[in-house]
């Protein structure tokens, strides 16, 4: 296992001008590297460990998996929300491990093959989500279970194309995670093909309980000239309605419309609201 310390440097200028003889790095977590045979490339993950985590005690923790989990993406602010909700005077989210999956080609990894010619031309590397899901199931999750003290409870967070991928996993491999936080999902992809599916999760009970949060802002039409224009908040509503109409008694769905947010700002308040709904105040 190739592990390095993940340090948070606010900026190059600050790190240079503010250094004193007593300065030391501010350590946020670790960066691990996975040699993926499925993807034929090395993949980095950023890992935050909850306060009090010790390798030699008997405590094990839930794991929150974050798509777009790079340091310059959603890792730092999402970890902040987890840590904030861990405070003893809030005590909403249980102490959790956060695993941020950094990107190499998100358009490839987060999308299934599209039937829309304009999307094929605009995103020539797209269509690799099947392999990426296999990477998560067969390499990433076992790696985390082997090297960190995971307790088997897990959450997946995805926004935009990450929300599209999270929805695909929910439809095709729902057992991989206990909770899904899906924010501003790009369900317009391939002219809304996912919304036309009738997956097993809506047809029958799951073998275990699954909670799904769907959050979306006031985002309007969002598509690369598909056959039919898609409105983000409408598609998110359709997804929530499909899941709510399911015959699955072990599936609980929360829908959250955030009219003050747009596609660029929905992620942070969406995760905060998801934690509030998925973990009701004790």
List its traits.
single chain, 282 residues, alpha/beta, nine-stranded mixed β-sheet, 31% helix
Structural write-up:
α2 packs parallel to α9. The longest helix is centred in the middle third of the chain and has 19 residues. With 282 residues, this protein is α/β, with parallel strands linked by helices. A nine-stranded mixed beta sheet has the order 1-2-3-5-4-6-7-8-9, with helices on both faces. It contains nine helices and nine strands. β2 and β3 form a beta hairpin.
Report the mean per-residue pLDDT as an integer: 91
Give me the secondary-structure category: alpha/beta
Supply Rg.
Answer: 19 Å
Largest sheet: 9 strands, mixed
Strand order of the largest sheet: 1-2-3-5-4-6-7-8-9
Proportion of beta-strand residues: 15-25%
Number of DSSP helical runs: 9
Note poorly predicted spans: 9-15
């Amino acid at each position: 296992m190739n592990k390095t310390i993940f340090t948070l440097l606010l900026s190059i200028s600050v790190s240079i001008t503010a250094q004193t003889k007593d300065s030391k790095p501010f350590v946020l977590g670790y960066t691990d590297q996975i040699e993926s045979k499925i993807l034929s490339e090395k993949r980095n993950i950023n890992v935050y460990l909850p306060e009090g985590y010790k390798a030699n005690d008997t405590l094990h923790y839930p794991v929150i998996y974050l798509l777009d989990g790079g340091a310059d993406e959603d890792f730092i602010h999402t970890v902040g929300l987890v840590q904030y909700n861990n405070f003893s005077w809030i005590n909403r989210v249980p102490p959790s491990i956060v695993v941020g999956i950094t990107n190499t080609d998100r358009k490839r990894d987060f999308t299934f093959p599209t039937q829309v010619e304009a999307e094929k031309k605009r995103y020539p590397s797209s269509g690799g989500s099947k392999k990426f899901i296999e990477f998560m199931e067969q390499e990433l999750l076992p790696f985390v279970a082997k090297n960190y003290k995971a307790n088997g409870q897990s959450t997946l967070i995805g926004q935009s194309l990450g929300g599209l991928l999270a929805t695909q996993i929910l439809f095709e491999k729902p057992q991989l995670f206990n909770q899904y936080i899906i924010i501003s999902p790009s369900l317009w992809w391939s002219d809304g093909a996912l919304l036309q599916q009738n997956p097993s999760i809506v047809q029958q009970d799951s073998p275990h309980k699954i909670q799904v949060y769907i959050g979306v802002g006031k985002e309007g039409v969002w598509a690369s000239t598909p056959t039919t224009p898609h409105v983000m908040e409408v598609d998110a509503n359709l997804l929530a309605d499909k899941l709510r109409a399911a015959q699955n008694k072990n599936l609980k769905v929360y829908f959250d419309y955030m009219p003050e947010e747009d596609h660029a700002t929905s992620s942070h308040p969406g995760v905060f609201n998801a934690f509030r709904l998925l973990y009701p105040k004790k």
